[in-house]
Amino acid sequence: MTITETCKALRTAQSALALHTAAQKNRALQCVAAAIDKNRNEIIAANSVDVAAARARGMSEALLERMLLDGKRIDGIISSMGVVIAQTDPVGEVTGGWNTPGGLAIKQVRVPLGVVAIIYESRPNVTVDAFCLAYKSGNAILLRGSSSALNSNRAIVAAIRQGLQDAGADGIAGALALCEPQADHGDVAQILGAVGLIDCVLPRGGATLIQNVVRDAKIPVIETGAGVCHLFVDESADVDAAAAIAENAKIQRPGACNAIECILVHERCAESFLPKLCAAFAGRVEIRADEQAFAILQKAVGANVVAAAESDFGYEFLDLTCAVKIVGGVAEAIAFINEHGTHHSETICTNDRAHARAFQAQVDSACVYVNASTRFTDGGEFGFGAELGISTQKLHARGPMGIRALTTTKFLIDGDGQVR
Questions:
Q1: What digits encode the pLDDT tens for the residues 109-156?
Q2: 410 membership: H or E segment, kind and range
Q3: What are the residues whose beta carbons fall under 8 Å from the beta carbon of 361, sequence distance 6 or more?
Q4: In 39-88, which residue ranges form alpha helices assigned H by DSSP?
Q5: Second label for 285, Cα 20 to 30 Å away, from 101, 179, 378, 418?
Q6: What angle do the packed helices 40-56 and 71-86 form, to 10 degrees?
């Protein structure tokens, strides 16, 4: 089928799905979860083929880790689906209502967006997350994953379709489609130009993918952001706690968009904090330090440090590499983050309440933390079960996106013969 034919079929399926009750959608999703569980061995085997091929092509271990599926991660996917199933169906929710002086009764209600597309890279769990959130919110979805995870995505989509078929009348198997990636990305161009066929598209991946989608799309885009995330260690910070937060935010999953890429350190605590940072990293992270930080770090035991280039600041490494810069205070840190960040997630370590509130008020990012790791920017951690991505824009949705992000509203107006 062509993209046009696929989108028309998705529109037909979505029209039917929009009439389904929350109970029907939940039963269908329960059947999908059971089918994924039943077919886990086939999914893991397909994923192993993708991972082996990606490793042979030289993909970094940090990115390979994001692609990997195993029994524990399949369990996590199924658990996340359970959280989404348990959530209140947003469709039909009355978000406002009033009567006009002329006697019109006006209600604003939540409705599905319609047909959505997601273009994403090398993370097969996104296939389930995106489908589950779209289906629960009454949307049909076109999935365009990367060629590097194609076998995984095929196996997952086959299991999803089996689950929807097992659900009988409660399942609409036509509510999702998997787009086979073309080498020249011609399929992406068709998706981005599908005016009237696709209601919105979500890019989820690296900066280049997101920038290309935003630049080329002729349909609405919900922009998810690359993650140039920062940690600022204030002069009043508990430096031991700050080092532990830095270790978690950089090392736990360095290929994730919510991992920190740059650490800013107040000049008054640099001498005490930077050796502790070096000890926490224990040589596992290459530190690219500005001139002041380099002078301190090169004396630290086990330092893995090089002089930073200007291009290292504002760069998403997605690996065990981190930029470090010394700043004069909270105002300088805020200005630096707003200039070099991607409006994703930032955190401050401080015991100064005024500095904490200034940081949260003035940093222009979707998620701004005090004394906590940026790794919590995640739909599961926020209680959404799954996420479509982290929106870094300001219109429609911002931050981790759950089922409500795939809805809009319309007004229902009842009268009894009024004319204007």
A1: 999 999 999 999 888 999 999 999 999 999 999 999 999 999 999 999
A2: strand 407-414
A3: none
A4: 40-56, 61-67, 71-86
A5: 378
A6: 120
